[in-house]
Amino acid sequence: MTGRNIARKLHLWLGLLSGLVVFIISVTGCIYAFQAELQDLLQPYRFVAARQAPQLPPSQLQAKAEEALPGKLVHAVLYAEPGRAAEVIFYSYEPTYHYVAYINPYTGEVQHIQDVKKSFFGFILQGHFYLWLPHDIGQPVVASATLVFVVMLLTGIILWWPRNKKGTRQRFTIKWNARWRRRNFDLHNVLGFYVSALALLLALTGLVWGFRWFAQGVYGLASGGKELQEYQEPPSDTTQAATIAAAPILDRVWHKIQAEHPGAAVVEVHPPLNESSSIAATINYHPDTYHKIDYRYFDQYTMQELSVDHIWGRYHEATAADKLMRMNYDLHTGAILGLPGKILAFLASLLCASLPVTGFFVWWGRRNKKPNKQKQAVRKLQQASI
To answer: What is the pTM of this model?
Structure first.
């Protein structure tokens, strides 16, 4: 069996096995591409009238949110750009919940509480990550289907490659005036080639989240063999618990960040989860992307800044390999190129969603292809002569 025939068999059977999953991942990714813009357009509680008055400190916003949503764990308090509501984020893995309280940062008024998991885009994201299945089942299925999709893209390029110069032109154009089987084949073959580079980027960045071994491999290649460290917040010194100041430590960290980063568009502070936790703070000057965020950590008793050995530290201290891994989300969504990048990601996801559909009909058409009249006549003569 030749290499081309092996590629054809792999492309066919892997496509039939993973087609539905790839379709769901692609459609949900396509819908999610403009979630930030659509939510800003449709959810007015995300905005407030900008004022000259000082914003309330995070401890007060946290208290207001906890009154509105008692018994839930506050994960972070986020201050956005002027004119936007502050967000108090409630999150827990077990039991599982994710809420966001949108609060006027000047008055403390709770404008809206959103159950993220029950929201439209929360539903879409659950499908994209887990196919709406339990995490332990859906995540490996999605990761495995993404890996299969990479193989299909590579075998698809092999099958697309013209065998001679005469067949080159038809590889780049769709014959619209042909019969439906030929049009469908061209849609699969030609559009599949055009989208292949972007589709590979989407799939490979997805695999970074899907498999730890893949993320380790990418980081190892980029760093010259170094190991990718797991995210872990540094601990506070519990022996200094008696030295804690009267003012809420979360507010002190927030004031420190504000003083040191007056031009930041987004500042987020994380209350300590327990007695040994540190206080994490993030500073983002570019709210449409995430890879340049500064991550800082402070002892909850002494306010001493703590260092980390993973990639989520200060941006200017990150290595080239660290920055590559940090870019993964912005590359996956296209946000790294701004609105044009999001449009490209949207179109690429849309075309990726079409490939399992057109591929299925290529297979179905070949299975149910009726013999032409000449072949039917030859077959009848052969039967009559028996």
So the answer is: 0.89
